[in-house]
Amino acid sequence: MKYHIWTLGCQMNEADSQRLASELERLGHQAASDPEDADIFVVNTCVVRQSAEDKGMNRLLQLQQVKQAQPDKIVGVMGCMVGVRDPLSLRKKLPFVDVFMPPSEPGPMVSFLQDSSIQAEIMAVEAQARAQRDALQDGDLILPAHEHGHLISAHVPVVYGCSHACSFCIIPFRRGIERSRSIGEIVAHVRSLALQGVKEVTLLGQIVDRYGKDIEDGPDLADLLHVVHDVAEETGLERIRFLTSHPNWMTDKLLDTVAELPRVMPHIEVPVQAGDDEVLQRMKRGYTADQYRKLIANIRARIPDVAINTDIIVGFPGETEEQFQHTYDLLAELKLDKAHLARYSPRPNTVSARSMEDDVSEEEKKRRHLELDTLQAEVVAEINQRFLGQTLPVLVEDQHKGKWRGRTPQNKLIFFEDDADWRGRVVDLEVTWTGPWSMQGRLPVSQREADLIVIN
């Protein structure tokens, strides 16, 4: 049987889909090169914003037509849409769906496929995957055949859920409280990816800095990075990243670990969400704009050449023009490498949806979003200009429109042209052009000559 997974939303959903794909591969199923050829359809949903939830529901309604025409097709829904709803009420709304899977839980689909009514078919195709399964340990992640040796960067969840309930965030209601994975489980996950050709892993958590906080006398994220770094050296894994951090939980120990370990990249994601103290208080973020400002200065002091990314929400309930200006001014002052911008969207069961009026018009939200986007384009263009003429180590991921595409240690996107196969290799590129969202580079003559020697 063939499967296809549509993934919406964050990197955690991408990792969850990868885990589900691994379980399906372990059962002997294969990814469909064309979604129309699939026998198993899964929509991994996101509900952080209404637009994302609408996309997931629209996709499911399209699958309803497929199910009506071909009843033998298997339809599953996974992710945050399942996480908070009562399964009975969701089943009434989506009666054509065969399997409902909460976030990070592929088990219901595995159990469904192991039902006796289809077990004979599963056993018939399982032999095709036996060689691949036997090459890995039980519990290791198996990449789909089309990704084996081709997937360069992958996400590895290290802590599920979230226990820090910001007033706007639906994640704690959908994904539950924090649960840290054991170091052994994470190591097995990372090692299995590296053995299948992955060159970079990103350790994930809703607040990744809180890894181990739910375990008495447990390890912290800095400890975990040391262990994963050892695995990287053993397996040839080139790079390690982590996200997303929270200003309240980023420690000097963690920052010093990033600076110390050569395979941990100088790239920090630490959302500010707003630059006004009153808005931050209503968001229940737990820090002030000045505290965030000092954190950025500390990160830059401890990690040479660091790139810092942030998240910002515009149009939060009660946000005045003056308060928005404080956010604008903070972003202009700090000159961060990337700002993920979002317009506020009230989500069910959150504090802001229950007790605050969504009183900023959609037109005003769009205007504020555009102002920050324009500002950030100017800031990043200025930052990237500093790389012009420098030679940077780039991990090459794939080809795009005839050019090789890769990323620097700071996660800057860079393109270059060459006839050799650079996928999965770290190449030194001389930066020849810079823009706000990407850069162009070329191979130094010495690098081309070295590559010719390797080829010959």
Q: State mean pLDDT (0 to 100 scale).
A: 91
From the structure provided, what is the oligomeric state, counting identical versus distinct chains?
Answer: single chain
How many domains make up the 3D coordinates? 4
What top-tier CATH class of the largest domain fits best? Alpha Beta
Provide the structure class: alpha/beta
Major beta sheet summary: 5 strands, parallel
Topology, number of strands: 17
Report a brief summary of the structure.
This protein has 456 residues and is an alpha/beta fold. It has helices spanning 11-26, 50-69, 80-84, 87-93, 107-113, 116-126, 130-134, 171-175, 183-195, 221-235, 252-260, 277-283, 289-302, 321-334, 351-355, 362-385, 445-455; strands at 2-7, 30-31, 40-45, 74-79, 99-101, 153-160, 179-180, 200-205, 239-243, 267-269, 307-314, 338-343, 391-400, 403-407, 413-416, 426-434, 439-442. It folds into 4 domains: 2-134, Rossmann fold, CATH 3.40.50.12160; 149-265, 2-Layer Sandwich (Transcription Regulator spoIIAA); 272-385, Transcription Regulator spoIIAA, CATH 3.30.750; 391-455, OB fold (Dihydrolipoamide Acetyltransferase, E2P).
